[in-house]
Amino acid sequence: MIKDSHTHHISQQFNAELEEVRSHLLEMGGLVEKQVNDAVTALIEADSGLAQRVREVDDRINQMERNIDEECLRILARRQPAASDLRLIISISKSVIDLERIGDESTKIARRAIQLCEEGESPRGYVEVRHISDQVSKMVRDALDSFARFDADLALSVAQYDKNIDREYKTALRELVTYMMEDPRSISRVLNVIWVLRSLERIGDHARNISELVIYLVRGTDVRHLGLKRMQEEVKGLTAERINVLDTPDDK
Amino acid sequence: MIKDSHTHHISQQFNAELEEVRSHLLEMGGLVEKQVNDAVTALIEADSGLAQRVREVDDRINQMERNIDEECLRILARRQPAASDLRLIISISKSVIDLERIGDESTKIARRAIQLCEEGESPRGYVEVRHISDQVSKMVRDALDSFARFDADLALSVAQYDKNIDREYKTALRELVTYMMEDPRSISRVLNVIWVLRSLERIGDHARNISELVIYLVRGTDVRHLGLKRMQEEVKGLTAERINVLDTPDDK
């Protein structure tokens, strides 16, 4: 659908601009994804140098957000996009907010990594951080891939995955609270890990937001707050409908 | 500036649409502000009925977000706004995200209120919740007022205020951690209060985001990530510049 409308564009320049801003978003996404992984590695390997670098890169991410926002604004003002082009610009300008916040959460994780280097390691929680961060990284990667490929089904799977993260986060939290009660002297260090888990859970939420924007972009339906079941119906249902349309020889 | 460009509009209908979407944003803001206050009251007065109502109202807030988004999209597609009108639409469509998240944090506070009703009260932290929530409520109110009145100075004061909240949040956290170490049996209940404080701190961040959007709307400058000092220079500096412009008899 998006590709079709693109081919009908009169202005090749407009196409190029849309492609450029989309590629800037994906570039920012790649950097943000790396920030998440670096922050977690810094924490697990107690590498305060790496944690410091994560904090420094955050400025670049903020700058990318500003640039992409400006590009979107320029396109809106000069090109007055409609239909799927307008949805693309809206999705990009919203996704950029989530990417920036994922960047923020990564710097928060990096700050905790530095604190744990200074105060000494937490006696528990690293297995859970590793496990949940692997899954959250995959969510961010898949959300960005779904944006790159206009893939609503992949986006749907990201949203579905978020439920797992929430469940595992709660289980990990319960275990860590129990541990703190047994060893109160560890409270401050264990809390650092709990904040990290919370940041990871948030990153999962942001990946889910991006995936919802991809579904909106590709399908034209706002699936936020719908619940997974109805979201699935929207994505799959509209797929079926589209197939019916393709079956019919006349247009409409 | 915004008023000037408005009076020059050819289309009265367009003006009416812009005013309408702005009033819908402020209406949503009013409801969200009430949600924050109700959630905190439910917590402090151990009123699980009120907490439950906060959770139920969240659906309405989500629906308001969708409606305002649709209005913005319709205006972008049909009216192709430029300059300050475009900035208004962008600011509204971004503020709505922050308002919805403030709504989310309120329901999280309500959920903790219900948990504390079930598990028994926390032995500490209510004074801090009351104190910080008073300030955060004021931030939300002022951010919305600054939007209603296109008041960049008031918006700046909200951003400045956010620093206080962050500091008080950290102090409260340190005290509560110390308390948990002294009375490990209270950990789970005190943690509920800590999550509430964290939600309040987030609400402050969102109010700050909205105030930055107001500055962008009124002044045309993107002040995010600038730091308070430069933000102040931008707001005050541009005020001075504007006064100079007004002093000069010829236009430009």
From TrEMBL, chains A, B:
As for subcellular location, the record says: Cytoplasm
Residues in the signal sequence: none
> Mitochondrion: is it a keyword of this entry?
no
Q: Which residues form the PhoU domain?
A: 25-112, 129-214
Zinc: present as a keyword of the record? no
Q: Which domain of life is it from?
A: Bacteria
The family classification in the record reads:
Belongs to the PhoU family.
**Function, please?**
Plays a role in the regulation of phosphate uptake.
Subunit record text: Homodimer.
Q: What is this protein called?
A: Phosphate-specific transport system accessory protein PhoU
Q: Which organism is it from?
A: Pseudomonas petrae
Q: What is the lineage of its organism?
A: Bacteria, Pseudomonadati, Pseudomonadota, Gammaproteobacteria, Pseudomonadales
